[in-house]
Amino acid sequence: MLSEAEYASLAQRTPLLVPADSYLSSHQATGWYPAVQSFTFPSRFQLANEVPDFSNGQSYFVKGLVKSFGDDSLVRSDIQWQQLCQRHELMPDELLFVRQYVPLTADSERRFFVVAGTAYGAEKTSLPTALQPVLDALKPRLFYSLDVALTQAGVPVVVEVGDGQVSDLKEWTLVDFGASVLRSLAAVT
Questions:
Q1: pTM of the predicted model, to two decimals?
Q2: Which of 80, 100, 120 is at the close of a domain?
Q3: Over the chain, what HEC string results?
């Protein structure tokens, strides 16, 4: 994944379809969470040296500003918090994205790609109606990924927004991705 500095360097070398400020507004959680906070899990940004409140049995899903810590991301105690920080060599002043843990319906997470305000789902899956306002909330971003899932109560939620620079296509086939997302992206240039 390109860091802020790497993306800015790339932008100096070649014209880019997605400007650096738009890229960062989707790449880092600090850029997208405020816009969609009513459609996702209650979350906050805090420093690694600030231990969350576990006194009432709370659990948190902890991420960096860009990606999770894999299996270590689910934290249920002070001890697990300390282990996460040590295992991933987090600096005390490193900003983390701390999300209230909400159990999700198994296998309900889907990845959408959004091009110019239109969401594309694999096999022409539609974005849940309850999440349609998210597309307006994230304007004017040209291109980003949008992961959504269902809570165990059946409520659709935004899991995360990404800059489109994803590690895999999840349920998408390469042919489907090219025919819908890449074709749409090419049409807006």
A1: 0.92
A2: 100
A3: CCCHHHHHHHHHHCCCCCCHHHHHHHHCHHHHHHHHHHHECCEEEEECCCCCCCCCCCCEEEECCCCECHHHHEECCHHHHHHHHHHCCCCCCCEEEEEECCCECCCCCEEEEEECCEEEEHHHCCCCHHHHHHHHHCCCCCEEEEEEEEECCCCEEEEEEECCCCCCCCCCCHHHHHHHHHHHHHHCC
pLDDT of residue 17: 86
- Give the CATH number for residue 174: 3.30.470
Same domain, 182 and 108: yes
Q: Which is nearest to 146 in space by CA: 172, 129, 175, 121?
A: 121
What sign has the CA pseudo-torsion 134, 130, 182, 170?
positive
**Domain co-membership, 51 together with 85:** yes
70-86 average pLDDT score? 97
- What is the dihedral angle through the alpha carbons of 65, 66, 67, 72, rounded to the nearest 10 degrees? -20
* Amino acid in position 8: A
Verify that 120 and 179 share a domain, yes or no: yes
Domain that holds residue 31: 4-38+104-187
CA atoms within 13 A on the CB side of 171: 15
Per residue in 105-133, pLDDT tens?
999 999 999 999 999 999 999 999 999 99
